[in-house]
Write a structure and sequence with these properties.
alpha/beta; Rossmann fold; eight-stranded mixed sheet; globular; binds adenosine-5'-triphosphate; binds magnesium ion
Length: 261
């Protein structure tokens, strides 16, 4: 199961990705969490201690490694390089693990546009396709806000897109834009998840606004989540409510993926 979490800025993508990852780990899954946001902060939502977090170097910053594996010369343009660099040892060597969740921080690769291919892109793409999962493995991707990055390799190899929305028109607009682009790159399973819910009316607003896009469930507005963020710990350790709500979201997701084949 490969799930990408996306949506408008600040809606709660990292919160959901962190809790989903911890929850699958508690179910006995081997979880790989991928932080694909250049402004990376999934580590703290997963509950990684600061000693580990501050040592993490995003993969895209490892210019020498990428150059070595793709046999490209850093900075050179119009050159030949390997499109299928060796990546099998990357997860083991460059990931950190805590609470049974393995974290990979991708960083970002600036691309000239759709279809542009550079050594960094080839490297991350090869890595994503290498991360083929076995039974009982889950991959959770925490994406950058917005839609610009959806053409990237990291977004293209997932089974489902979870688009987080809050009760407001702007995050729903982002949902609709994500849906269109995700379909363009061939992703059929696009679901919405409502967050920061304070009343049943807000749930109704989201259900009405999402139209044909299925809503997997809702996460309540919860002071404990903000408190966890202030402490730099995982919401998973502070909010009983979000754990239960995310459990229901997972069940709904699994049942929908089963019926969609
Ligand atoms: N259900 C909730 N109740 C209360 N606060 C929440 C809830 N969900 C998220 N938050 C808070 O909202 C803020 C943004 O959450 P988060 O970082 O998960 O969003 P994001 O979509 O990943 O943001 P970005 O676009 O910057 O990556 C955080 O301070 C988080 O603690
Ligand atoms: Mg985030």
């Amino acid at each position: 199961m490969r799930i990408a979490v996306t949506g408008k800025g600040g809606v709660g993508k990292t919160t959901l990705a962190g809790v989903l990852a911890r929850s699958y780990a508690d179910d006995g899954y081997k979880v790989l969490a991928v932080d694909a946001d250049p402004d990376s902060n999934l580590a703290s939502a997963l509950g990684f201690p600061e000693e580990i977090t501050e040592k993490i170097v995003p993969l895209s910053d490892m210019k020498d490694l990428i150059a070595q594996r793709t046999e490209a010369k850093p900075g050179a343009i119009g050159q030949m390089f390997k499109l299928n660099p060796r990546v099998d040892d990357i997860p083991e060597k460059y990931c950190v693990t805590h609470n049974n969740v393995t974290l990979l921080v991708m960083g970002t690769v600036k691309e000239g546009g759709m279809g542009c291919i550079c050594p960094e892109h080839a490297f991350l793409k090869a890595l994503m396709s290498h991360l083929i999962l076995r039974t009982n493995e889950a991959l959770i991707l925490d994406m950058e806000a917005g839609i610009e990055h959806l053409g990237r390799a990291t977004a293209q190899s997932v089974d489902a897109f979870l688009v987080v929305v809050e009760p407001g028109k702007r995050s729903i607009q982002t949902l609709k834009a994500v849906e269109k682009l995700a379909r363009d790159i061939g992703i059929k399973n696009i679901f919405a998840v409502g967050n920061k819910i304070k009343s049943p009316e807000e749930e109704t607003f989201i259900l009405d606004s999402c139209g044909d896009i299925p809503v997997l469930g809702f996460m309540s507005h919860d002071e404990n989540i903000m408190h966890a963020d202030r402490l730099g710990v995982s919401p998973y350790e502070r909010s009983r409510k979000i754990i239960l709500e995310v459990k229901m979201i997972k069940e709904e997701l699994e049942s929908r993926l089963r019926t969609s084949g």
